[in-house]
Amino acid sequence: xxxxxxxxxxxxxxxxxxxxxxxxxxxxxxxxxxxxxxxxxxxxxxxxxxxxxxxxxxxxxxxxxxxxxxxxxxxxxxxxxxxxxxxxxxxxxxxxxxxxxxxxxxxxxxxxxxxxxxxxxxxxxxxxxxxxxxxxxxxxxxxxxxxxxxxxxxxxxxxxxxxxxxxxxxxxxxxxxxxxxxxxxxxxxxxxxxxxxxxxxxxxxxxxxxxxxxxxxxxxxxxxxxxxxxxxxxxxxxxxxxxxxxxxxxxxxxxxxxxxxxxxxxxxxxxxxxxxxxxxxxxxxxxxxxxxxxxxxxxxxxxxxxxxxxxxxxxxxxxxxxx
Length: 323
Description:
The longest helix is centred in the first third of the chain and has 21 residues, at 96-116. The strands form 4 sheets. This protein has a 7-stranded parallel beta sheet with strand order 3-2-1-4-5-6-11, with helices on both faces. Strands 7-10 form a two-stranded parallel sheet. Strands 8-13 form a two-stranded parallel ribbon. By secondary structure, the chain is α/β, with parallel strands linked by helices. The protein has 12 helices and 13 strands. The protein is globular. It has a domain at 2-182 and 217-242 and 278-296: Rossmann fold (3-Layer(aba) Sandwich), CATH 3.40.50.720. Keywords: NAD. It holds the Pfam family GDP_Man_Dehyd. Residues 4-304 form the NAD(P)-binding domain. This is NAD-dependent epimerase/dehydratase.
């Protein structure tokens, strides 16, 4: 298939592109290469993908409808995987406008062009952040109408817009809600990347709260596999992609300490109002509809991630971090 993959230079986009290419698909990747975090990391991922002749790249912002239109005029797509997003809960409070431009308007632009150009399969990346206040494990069948950050609200907007296009135009939509994705070449605004880098360099790490908060840490290659499996014709479905095995933040830190052979210098700060105390995915639906379940446990995934840092030492530890 010829697949349009947005956010291709992003963390999950990079691994999803590799999975698609390994499966024999042709991938048109787009990304605006914004500077929310160190662009060198996005350039690294993009350049790795360009080594494959079945990958083409365009620097493009999905919130720009006219630029997207030109892309659709020049290429025929069998499916769209929309991973382009402004991520990061805390920064969305500082600049909510850009989150809605990308996550909401960008998704609308893609759906409108999918309708106009006859692209009948749409995979939308969404987030476990929508489950704030729900009982765990989180299931897809309960309404999520209480987003506690502009990031989560913008993702909710994208989900319901995708449903509208399914309802009116018959576009087949898989919404995949991701749970705390980590792995090699990850995002430097997320705890796993930041903590590995800071602990290795004997720099203090900041923990919001006492570290007892838990996350359903999910390895990026498992997420990429589930995202590709979501290309299946399905109607309109929301599907959790998570590890189904939450770990406390403090335990993740201990694993990193063991792998690096160093002790973390922890600075505790007040728990952030926009954060969730815990996430835990019920993945029954993913197993039944997609035949998907995670394969990589947290210890193995962290070992792979630390090894990537050490194998790319001069580059990886120089990446600028952000909270």
